[in-house]
C-alpha cells in the first residue's frame, strides 16, 4: 500500500447532528459492510450507546475506496463522541488524523459542541471538510447554515457539501472530497518504528489490545516491540485492522491505523499516549502524546456488598484502560466501608461509568453525592486540594476556600433569553456577553461555579428552552468563595458520605431540604431518630423520624390507671435503652436524596 493513498480522518459534530449515521453511509458506500450485516449506528457497538443514542467511545474503521481517478485509497475513519463530557475522547482521536469532517445539522445550524470540536481540530492543524447534513428534512436550511458557518468560522460557503446521511445523498461527493482535500500522512517509512497508542481495551484472551497510529517505520508480525514509557518488551500475539471488527494482518505501515494485541495481562503496562517501537531500536524519541486529563467531578463508588470490593477494583482497572479520562483511588467511609474516590469529566460521564460497572461487570454499587475539587488555604499558608467534603480540614485552621469556575457558552433561541438568564443568575453565574448568531439564535457567555453546574444544570437548561439550547464549557480558574461544610447527623452520629460543601448563603436552604428528604427516606425505628444538618457546631435544621410504637395498653380493659402508667413507663425505659445501643441503617435512597436536591 502506497503511503500517498492513505487518508486518516475523523468525524466531528455536536451531539445528534448525524455523525454515526454518516459513518454508516460511508461504510455502505465503500462496501466495508455488506447489506446483510448492516444495522443502524454500526460503530456504536456498546449497549449503552444504542440505548442512549449517543457515541461514548471513539471507534476506528478501515475502508477501501476506488476514486474517479481509478486509484484505490485506504480510508481510516475514527468516529468521535459529540457530548461535552467526552471532549477528551475527541482530542485523542484527532491526533491520529490529518483531516476532519465537520458535520452541521441543516435544521439546527451551529451548536456549542460544533465550535468546541472545530477549534480542537484547528489546534491540531487538521484539514476541515465541512458537511451540511439532514438536507432531506422539510425544515432544512442548507444555504443559511452554510452562510452561518462562513460568517462564524470563515470556511467558504461554496466548499460546503450538502449531504443526507439518512438517505445517502451526497455521500459519493463527500468520499471524493476526502480523497482530494485530506492530505496523506507525512511519516518516514525508512525511520525506526514509532507508533502512537491512542486508545486500548482489555481482552480476556489477547490481553491488552492497543489501538495505534503508525507515525514512522513499519511493524511486521513476529517482531518484538518496546513501550517507551514503561520500558516493557513483548512479542505481540496479533496485529491487524478494524473493519470494523478486528481483522488480523501481516504488517502495519507508515500512516496506517490498526491494533496490536500485546498479550499483557497487567493493565498498567500499556498507557494511552505512549510511543511504541521495535525492541532492537535505540535512541528513538517518544511522540508528544497527550496532555494529562483533569477530572472535574468527583464521587465515591462503594460496593453494596463489602466482599465485592476486589471485584470493583478489577472492574475500575479494566474500565480505565478503555477510558483514560477516569481516575480513582481507594478511600474509606464510616457509613459505607471500603470503596474508591473516582474522578470524572462530568455528570454524564459519571452516569456512564456507573452503568458500565453494573452492566458489564455485574456489580451493585452506590455512588455518593458528586463534588468538585476545592483549594483550601490554611492559616499557616499551606494550599491543600480536596475532592471530598470529608477531607476538609478543621474549620478553625482554614483561612479561605477557593472553588473552580467555568466559562460557559449557551446557544439558545432568542425567545428563551429571559428564562435562561434567570436560571443562571440563581446559580451565582456572572454574565459575560451576548452575541446574535442570526435573527432567531443567540450565544450567551457566563462565568459560573462548577459546583452549581454538576447536578442538574444541563437538564434544567434543556427543560427551560424546550430542548433547543446547547451548552459548552471549559475551566476558567479558581476563585475564593464563602464556602462551608454542611454535615448531616443521623441519630447524633455524623454520616460522612452525606456531607456537602455549599455557599454560606445557601446552607440553611440546602440543609432544610436535605433533612426533609432524609426524613422520608430513612425507615422508622423502634426509637425516635433525630436528623440534623449542621455547619460546624451550629445545627441549622432538624427533623425527627417518629418511633414505631407497640400498643402496650391493648390488653388493659379499664381497671386502675396506675397499671397503665407502669406499662407506659416500662416501654419508655426500653426505648431509651434501645436508643443508646441501637444503630440506624441508612438506606441507598438516602444517599440519592443528596443528588436530587436540585430537582425541585
How would you describe what is shown here?
This protein is of the alpha+beta class and 600 residues long. It folds into 5 domains: 179 residues, P-loop containing nucleotide triphosphate hydrolases (Rossmann fold); 84 residues, Elongation Factor Tu (Ef-tu), domain 3 (Beta Barrel); 74 residues, Elongation Factor G (Translational Gtpase), domain 3 (Alpha-Beta Plaits); 107 residues, Alpha-Beta Plaits (2-Layer Sandwich), CATH 3.30.70; 115 residues, Elongation factor 4, C-terminal domain (Alpha-Beta Plaits). The chain is built from 14 helices and 31 strands. The strands form 6 sheets. An 8-stranded antiparallel sheet has the order 11-10-16-7-8-15-12-13. It has a 6-stranded mixed sheet with strand order 2-3-1-4-5-6, sandwiched between helices. Helix 12 packs antiparallel against helix 14. The termini are far apart. The relative contact order is 0.08.
Number of structurally distinct domains: 5
| CATH homology superfamily name of the largest domain | P-loop containing nucleotide triphosphate hydrolases
CATH class of the largest domain: Alpha Beta
Residue share in β-strands: 25-35%
CATH-scheme architecture of the largest domain? 3-Layer(aba) Sandwich
Broad shape:
globular
Structural class: alpha+beta
CATH topology heading of the largest domain: Rossmann fold
Largest sheet: 8 strands, antiparallel
Helical amount: 25-40%
Compute the separation of the termini in Å. Answer: 60 Å
Distinct helical segment count? 14
Pick out the low-confidence regions: 578-582
Radius of gyration over C-alpha positions, nearest whole angstrom: 29 Å
Mean pLDDT: 80
- Widest sheet: strand order? 11-10-16-7-8-15-12-13
Number of strands: 31
